[in-house]
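Researcher: Good morning. I'm working through a list of sequences from a screen, and I'd like to move beyond sequence-only analysis. For each chain I'm collecting a predicted structure so we can compare shapes side by side. This is the next one on the list. No need for commentary yet; just the structure.
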Amino acid sequence: MSDLQHRKDHVKIPSSPRCVWWLGFWQTAGHVHWWLSSDQPDVEPPEVGSIPRHRLTSLLNALMSALPGLTTRERMALAEIDYHIEQAVFPTSATSNTPDAVIGQEEADAVAAVIADRIELLARRAAVLDGAARRSWTGAMVDLADNVAMLSELGSMLLPPVLRDRLGQAEPSTTTVVIAPGPGLSFVPWELLVVDDEQDVRLIERANVLGGISPGLLVNVARPAAPFLGGGPALRVVDPIEAGSRTGGGRIYPDGLPDEWHDRSDAENMVLGAVTPAGCSPAELGEVLRARTWSRLVFVGHASAADTTMPTTAGLEFAPDRNSGEGRLTAGRWLREPEKWPAPRRVAFVACQSDDAGYTEQLGLTLAALNAGARTVTTTRWSLPSDGSENLVSGGAGIGRATTALALAVDKALTTNDPASSVCDWQRDRLRSWRSAVTDAERRLHAPLVWASLVTYDVPEAAIASIPVTDEPVPRPSAAPDAEDETEYKPPRNATEAASRLAAGTKASERADWSGARNHYLVALAGFLAADDRKGIADATTNVGNTAYFLGDLDEAARRYRAALPLYRDLDMERSVAIVEQNLGNVYYQRGELDVAANQYRKAADDLLSGGFQREAADTLVNLAAVLVDLGRPQEALIHLDRAGEQYRETCGEDELASKLAELDQNSGLALAETESFDLAREHLLSALRHWTSVDPSENQAARTNHNLGLVAFRAGNLAEAHLRYSEALAYFLTVDNHHDAADTRLGLGTVARRRGEEEEARALFRLAQQHYRQTGQWLARARALFNEGLTFPEDSFARFALLGGAWAAMQSMSWRLPRVAERAGWRAAIDHATDDFLRSARLGGRNRHFAEIVESLRISGTLRRVVEPVQTPGTWDSDQDELRVEPLPPTTFSSAPVPWTLWSAADEVPCDAPPWIECGWPIVLDDVVERAQEILVAAGARPLRSGTVSLLSLLQRHSDDRPGIGDLH
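Model: Good morning. Structure tokens for this chain:
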């Protein structure tokens, strides 16, 4: 396999003198994928390709070690030193506040030892930091020869050949390359990539280089673009933390604000921050921003992130507020409250790693500024070295203020008609100065270690204005009126007879005679209604819901549970309320609404634990774990299973505990399988099987365990055992007419048949499973069965693409439902294998445009604002409504998703690009795919897919909509 694999389509030479290229990257576990397109009408569909990740690993590691900041090893060393510093504490007697306290010689010696230890540890700490600075000032981002070697090799791998060819005679004045690098490549200095090895020509010398941002991020931006004010008033926030504060390592100008910044403060322009010892708080900045309309905002200072996986925790460091004590303006807070910090049209953050392209979703400071009104945002890719840090390698001889020079250049660029081009012009000038430098000091002063950190985003207002404002959620189909329930029983004459019917229904349920149980429960319900026994009504209603659940009527089950909830609440029966809430969670789980199910289970578990019902809370935690496994978060699931085990051991008797531990073994086995710990997973499941066959015989539980053993065997590659286990489970389920579980097992047997090459048998099994899922409204399970059916067709066939597409789009839509970035990343990772299969089908079928659109749909689906359905609040019970107790449903103990998908790192799969003609939502080119997915979702009453109508072409047009007399291009 070559280093660069790509599929070539004919690309005509653009006839227009102006050309914009879009280069987008995204990663899976094994590859870095790319696609390339242009805004020119005579350019054919995009090129796509992939680079094996292992080919890039050593190069990217070398690049990372040449940049400012700490390597992984240095971070670990600092963490260990800081730990020992915390442990080096003075004896208690030495810290007494008593004025006349006298310490003995032993205590004095101990204090001296602590002081000596701390001095040594602080010296070691300083040495690590100095070593990091020395490494960056002597590495490939300063040394020209090393830089050429590294960036030439990176350029040959990361820049598609067709782009390198077209840039051969290009000029920056007419050519722009917009790059969306994504998490794994966000720190690459794209401007420096070599496009001509013989002449050492860099990308920045052939084109202006900008950052790319997805249209999905621009949906429902809170504020319109701030007006263009030309050279109007500017607001600079420079070093705003308090004097003497150690935040971020202290002030970047500890000796006072340089004259260059002081000189920028006058009657029209304002400088906040280090102009006073108190600095500036986020609240004070908000007051100044709201007081007038500014042309630009330049922040020069510290930035940090509380959680490196969560972009919304990224924030700018300020002085603490006098009232709240808050000293950070985080991206999350700014996104929530943009009106408090309205952004000028042009914004710059000259702060460590203020760019947010490195996150799995680009929801950091860049988006916060755009959301608040900015349209041009300049940020930095990596940590910036402080002025004077080069003295470590120059013998104390300063070279000038390289970082300050960068900040001043950005400030100046924001005053021009075309800020993005002006930043690139300045970088080209720095490149020339670096190459022509004679002395080491000059070379360090002009080194790309500083200036190549900049990345500018330029978003035309036309693109944002044309993006749909909101989704139009399709209401769930209303349930048909209940037919008259015919029963062979006469209505009970009183509450006592009704209770007898309720008990009879419970016995029928124990035999899995759901139809017979339903009749008993309906008779009991009629008797309780006649007797106006509200507790009896609630109990019978819940039981009717339970039988509906097992008969596959999830809509009725949900209606009955919702009807029972207000009755139990009126009766102050907290335990019963929580149990019914858990049962509702089971309904959502079976429907495939995993996010709703997880929230339902969490709420039920919290309510049960707060009420002291530990045993029932443990059941709910088991169900929560099952959902988390399906959401691609098995480690979190294992934590909840451990919690459930603790509760069971505290509350269950010996016999019941054995059964509960067997159920835990079932679920633990499934979670462990998702972490690819197959041997350990099998041990847990075999332990459960021994219990259900010998200790507490249960054919139903044994069949479920065999199903799960089949799943684990399949994922471990043991097809013979998988077929045996699935077959034993299916035989039992069919014997007792348990079509619900039989469908899941058919899905598993189908995957085994497909792997064996028995395509026709596999197809038949998948279709039988789909029939059941369609009838019961289990859209997620149906999508999985449909996807597996697609895999039975040849890789480049239309049938394969069509089936995979509809199923994949339905499954991918789950990302829209999850409110947290980590949850969305986990789900995308869980279906990463499906994504790869679908993309492969598109690529092998020559559908390059589909390929690019699919990837962008991944990006959009994770970042759209969530559409929340109205919460159905229980109303007052009405005896005229036939709206709908028994213990909670059994914990979910087997997976309904036997598709063999490997769980990879959540960050590996996240896509990071945006084609120039992409729709915001599901693109028109994927209409057929979306239509098939809609049929899967809407039939089950699930939330529909988002459709869009906006092209991204205007986002790629290089123009200056800020210039007087020049408007946005449409």
